[in-house]
Structures are given as C-alpha cells and as structure tokens.
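Sequence in, structure out.
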Amino acid sequence: MGIYHLTGVFWFNIGAFAFGLILAITSFNYYKKLNRMKTGVYWAIGCITICLLFVNGIIKVVDLMDENMKEGAFETLQERYEDRGDHKNESYDNLEVVVIPQKLKWSTSYNIYIGNFNKLYTYTGNVEITIWNKKDKKVFTHVTEKVTIKPGEKKEIKNVNYDTWHSGYSWKWLGELKK
C-alpha cells in the first residue's frame, strides 16, 4: 500500500475523529466554564474514543457480513463441482461460477465468484454471465474483465450493478485452459 493509496476505512476514521473532536472541544469548553477542567479532559477523550469505536464497530460488522457471503459462495462452488464436475479429466466442466444478487437501496449488486477445480490447468479469459428473470427472459448480459484462475483457486471477481433483482443466471467461458 503506497502513501497515496487511502481506503474508505481511512476516510471513515478521519470523519469519526473529526466528529469526535468537535464533540470533545464542545464538552471541554462547557466544563471549562464550570471550572472543571479534569472532567472536561475526560469527556473530550471519551468523545473521540466513542466515535472511533462506533465507526470501527460498524465497519467490522459489514466486513463480517461480506466474509460470510464469500464463504457461502465458496461452499456453493464446491458443492456444484461435486455434483456436476468431471472428476477424472481436466476440462471446462471443472470451472464453476456462482452469482449472488444482493439487494441495495436503489439497485442490485450481483456478486460473482469463480472456482477452478482442475488439478493441472489454469483458466485465462473472460466470463460471460447472463441474468434471467422468472419467465426465462434475458434481462442483461455482463462480460467480466479478463481473469486468471489457477488450479484449485476460488476467487471473488468484480461485481456488477443493475436496477432490478433476479436470481436466475447462466454463464459461458470466453477463454482457454492451459497447463
């Protein structure tokens, strides 16, 4: 991580610290007027601490929810491979995709997970994912960026957003398997 790469967590913490600092200065000035400087210092430290703990608690809960979704998707990849994979040969049948739609306030995020259950072959290429509605009509098609997935590897790839929620999907591999 370079000096110029600042994550959203960093900015949330800066915001929490700034809000805590405003509360700290306000409470300190209030207790200073009452000639209770020691109490003002305690309140100031407490305000900053509580704001930082609150924001980091929310961030941790969101991270845990994302991690649980990812673990569930990887388990589903494994189950699908066990059901329909070609356990004796290296082939495209050993590549699996799971798409999990997640409803957001104004749209749906389609989280895409892929797994390569081949023992020797690496897949390099794109994945074309088609989302279907309940009446089996195509809603939209998304082609992922180029991905490389090594034998035995499972990974989450960049998600795609769309305005409506649909659970049906199909996929096509647009690349090649190589040793």
